[in-house]
Amino acid sequence: MISNVWKFLRVVVAIAIAFTVIGCQKLPEAIAPTAPTPIIVKLSSWAANPAEQKLLKQILDDFQLHHPGIKVKHEVINDQYMDVIKTRFIGEAAPDVFYLDALEAPFFMSQDVLEPLEAYIKPEFDLADFQVTLLDSFKYQNHIYGLPKDYSTLALFYNKQAFAAANLSSPPTTWDELRSDSKLLTVDRNQDGRIDQYGFGEIPELARQAYKIKAFGGQLVTENGYAAFASEAGLQGLQLAVDQYQKDGTSAQKSDVGTNSGSEMFGQGKAAMVIEGNWAIPYLRETFPKLEFATAEVPSINNKKGTMVFTVAYVMNKQALHKAEAWELISYLTGFEGMLHWTATGFALPTRKSVAEKLGYEKDLMRSPFIAGVNYAIPWQAGKYSAVIMNNFDNQFVSAILGQQPLKQAMVRSQAEANKQIKAME
Fold first, then answer.
1. Which domain of life is it from (predicted)?
2. Which residues does residue 74 pair with via DSSP β-bridges, in sequence order?
3. Domain 153-308+384-425, CATH homologous superfamily name and number
């Protein structure tokens, strides 16, 4: 009996020792699952002001909240934006997604550096919701290379107090009326021979004159991309600006009155009318809060409505490493929710018709002229070599406005020089 007890005790002790040893050993810890590393999409843009930059950051934060697997690395380039982007492409360090102005789009689309987007676009994205004129600005050889994020046309801004003082009850609807009204609105208050308020503020740049060229059947460029603005038809439209400045004496350039822009000229009361973009509305309201102004469609020329439209798209680098994720970003930013957030503040107009309707911009008295203009506006594009054409025009047209040389001579000279430079680049 005793021997059996000792055997039992030895077994109990052995078991106790075994559990003690096991208890002293460190058990392996449970391995927590690691979150996958988010894919980085590089985005480059510019920012017109701090408020715009802050707004885009908020929208990108929303995107990342709904797409935790994607991290957007956003870079703001405000100085020489297009030169920086072109340099990045040369160095194979271009961003995955970036802003592209319609003016630069023809060159970029022709260089085979952008990813065509039509393969990514699904029916639910509703491509038909975009304004056709804006979308067409980013089409090339049957491919879609960009989706426009916002836009602005040009419209007539007029000083309501100045109009009342001149007994004018409504804005001009034709260019002849604009010139007539400008005579009534041009004021020498002190009778000292110095004009205190001009009727119209003129901006002698191709971006503000192209619709005048086309009003009589002129063209900016040929099908081959060469400058063509010096045709007799084109000169007929440009002569309107020259005659008002020289013969009527009722228009002024910003440099004539010591301002930096047409908006500032208007805000300071040095011009009773200017033709500006939607961007002028928040600027004028903030900088000149006492100014009473309204907007109207650009007066017709030669019985034709005309204006310019400026737009910017999101485009994808053809060498982007993560194209599916890059598309997710583009589709969010140009989709209904992203665009609604982006344009709700009013500093930019939505390129989607459904967003404009949601925001009520067509019924907004201040913005409805801009919305109406998009249906007949001329996109601000001048072929693959737009910078060459624009620079040569601007340099010579100013001298024509000032009377330093005849308009035809100035335009023929600038067109010839532009085409000489283009030929050398091909």
1. Bacteria
2. 43
3. Periplasmic binding protein-like II (3.40.190.10)
Q: What is the pTM of this model?
A: 0.88
CATH 3.40.190.10 correct for 41-152+310-379: yes
Tell me the C-alpha distance between 208 and 298, whole Å. 11
Run of H or E including 141: none
Contacts of 150 (CB under 8 A, 6+ apart): 311, 312, 339, 342, 343, 348, 349, 350, 351
Whether the CB-CB separation of 313 and 147 falls below 8 Å is answered with: yes
Length of the chain: 426
Q: CA 49, CA 324: separation in Å to the nearest integer?
A: 31
Instruction: Name the residue among 74, 111, 14, 61 with its Cα closest to residue 318.
Output: 111
Pairing of strands 146-159, 308-316: antiparallel
Give the chain's end-to-end CA distance (angstroms, integer): 112
Cβ distance 293 to 284 under 8 Å? yes
Q: Are 138 and 147 in contact (CB under 8 A)?
A: yes
State the DSSP string of 350-382. Answer: -SBHHHHHHHTGGG-TTTHHHHHHTTTPEES--
For the CA atoms of 133, 135, 140, 142, what is the dihedral angle to 10 degrees? -100
Q: What would the pLDDT profile of 270-316 be if each residue is shown by its tens digit?
A: 999 999 999 999 999 999 999 999 999 999 999 999 999 999 999 99
Give ranges for CATH 3.40.190.10 in the chain: 41-152+310-379, 153-308+384-425
What is the C-alpha separation between 186 and 252, in angstroms, rounded? Answer: 10
Averaged pLDDT of the chain: 92
